[in-house]
Task: inverse folding
């Protein structure tokens, strides 16, 4: 058997209400939402479900509401409730709360923008200078004199592979048909309305609507299907785990590091842009990585090494963790794919052209989309089924922002948007 799911239904159903192409977290979430609404849904994946060649596998993703771009915070908050709802439906946890700590030079425009986002969306925050940060975290993390840190309650860790599995299971239990090892090679207009989705093994599925969530393969597939070039650059990125020194392991754990609720998830604005999660998935190790990577073809990858500026990361680990984490080098690494837009904003839009509103694209999640997958799935389902995403402002996510403007959305904090090498 080459696929998972109900083959008979796939064969005998002439028309699906929605065909979702690509079963990473975004496609799995979209399929869950459409199936839950009672729509006949087909989810197609080119490789095995839960494979490690895209963007949605692994052990941890950071949750944070502290975006310099204030239009992400509502998606994060909406997703928080939707993650909880999905967890209660499945009966296990994928979301683990922590505090979030953002840091950088006090005059960083990004940090200032984060503060104004918190104010705009009534996110309680505390701005800490070096000594206050030292007291707050008992010396576990430190910053230079001219830096500040922002502490909020809206942080946490999500388990990505487990979360994708949860969304696929919920899609399935709500009636979706799931097929893996099924590469989509063509999406065509059906002369009787809707679309025809053609696979590499020659099968043709008919859908009233199609949602394309193919991550790093978006540029290739959309170009092949429509001739349109969506500016999404695949990057190979490296996740690094560092060893916490003897005597300090519990200090850097999530949720159990003492009375203060454990070590936070964290981000450090500037070059390099560093992010990480508390010790959780691998006892005694803490994740500290650089946001960025090397340009690559998702079908011809370098598979590492060297996608990280290790010297800068070593210095960061040594300086920020008060010598309590071994800065010699990461003891474990994992590879993953980013799909970067020039402005690092998502693409959530109709493909347009001959497909009009029948094909919806969800792509370009630029290394920060996982936490928002439940809300993104809902938006994609809304666009496909209703033609509008009620209550969500999509202006910043439209394809038209790139028309005659290769950089896309203009940002006042340029340090955030230059992470490809
Ligand atoms: C190392 C790393 C760290 C990250 N950290 C964070 C974080 O801390 N917080 C956060 O919120 N986000 C984070 N992200 C980003 C987040 O993981 C991604 O935004 C998200 O996983 C993107 O999911 P996707 O479904 O768009 O892509 P993918 O997971 O790549 O899914 C696309 C799927 O489409 C399939 N596909 C492609 N072409 C075809 C075809 N022709 N036919 C059928 N199937 C096809 C692919 O095989 C793939 O399974 C991180 C990403 C990485 C790599």
Result:
């Amino acid at each position: 058997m080459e696929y998972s799911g109900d083959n008979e239904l796939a064969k005998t159903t002439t028309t699906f209400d929605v065909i979702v192409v690509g079963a990473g977290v975004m496609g799995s979430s979209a399929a869950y939402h459409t199936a839950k609404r009672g729509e006949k849904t087909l989810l197609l994946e080119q490789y095995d479900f839960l494979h490690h060649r895209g963007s949605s596998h692994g052990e941890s993703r950071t949750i944070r509401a502290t975006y310099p771009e204030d239009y992400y915070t509502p998606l994060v908050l909406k997703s928080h409730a939707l993650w909880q709802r999905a967890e209660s439906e499945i009966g296990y946890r994928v979301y683990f709360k922590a505090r979030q700590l953002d840091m950088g030079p006090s005059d960083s425009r990004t940090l200032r923008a984060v503060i104004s986002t918190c104010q705009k969306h009534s996110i309680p925050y505390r701005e800490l200078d070096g000594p206050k940060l030292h007291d707050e975290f008992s010396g576990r993390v430190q910053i230079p004199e001219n830096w500040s840190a922002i502490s909020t309650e809206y942080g946490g860790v999500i388990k990505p592979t487990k979360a994708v599995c949860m969304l696929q299971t919920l899609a399935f239990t709500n009636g979706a048909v799931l097929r893996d090892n099924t590469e989509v090679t063509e999406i065509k207009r059906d002369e009787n309305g809707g679309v025809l989705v053609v696979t590499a093994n020659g099968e043709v599925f008919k859908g009233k609507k199609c949602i394309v969530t193919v991550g790093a393969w978006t540029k290739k597939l959309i170009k092949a299907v429509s001739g349109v070039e969506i500016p999404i650059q695949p990057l190979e990125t490296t996740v690094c785990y560092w060893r916490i020194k003897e005597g300090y392991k519990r200090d850097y754990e999530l949720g159990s590091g003492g009375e203060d609720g454990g070590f936070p998830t964290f981000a450090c604005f500037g070059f390099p842009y560093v992010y990480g999660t508390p010790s959780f998935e691998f006892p005694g190790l803490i994740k500290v990585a650089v946001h960025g990577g090397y340009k690559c073809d998702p079908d011809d990858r370098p598979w590492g090494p060297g996608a990280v500026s290790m010297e800068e990361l070593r210095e960061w680990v040594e300086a920020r963790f008060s010598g309590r984490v071994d800065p010699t080098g990461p003891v474990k690494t994992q590879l993953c794919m980013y799909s970067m837009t020039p402005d690092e904003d998502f693409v959530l839009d109709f493909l347009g052209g001959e497909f009009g509103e029948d094909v919806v694209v969800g792509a370009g999640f630029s290394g920060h989309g996982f936490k928002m997958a439940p809300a993104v799935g809902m938006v994609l389902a809304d666009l496909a089924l209703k033609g509008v995403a009620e209550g969500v402002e999509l202006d910043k996510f439209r394809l038209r922002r790139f028309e005659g403007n290769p950089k896309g959305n203009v940002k006042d904090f340029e340090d955030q948007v230059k992470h490809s090498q």
In short: The chain is about 25% helix and 25% strand. The pocket of flavin-adenine dinucleotide is lined by residues 21-27, 44-47, 54-56, 61-62, 183-184, 213-217, 221, 237, 239, 336-338, 365, 367-371 (CB under 6 Å). The two ends are 41 Å apart (CA to CA).
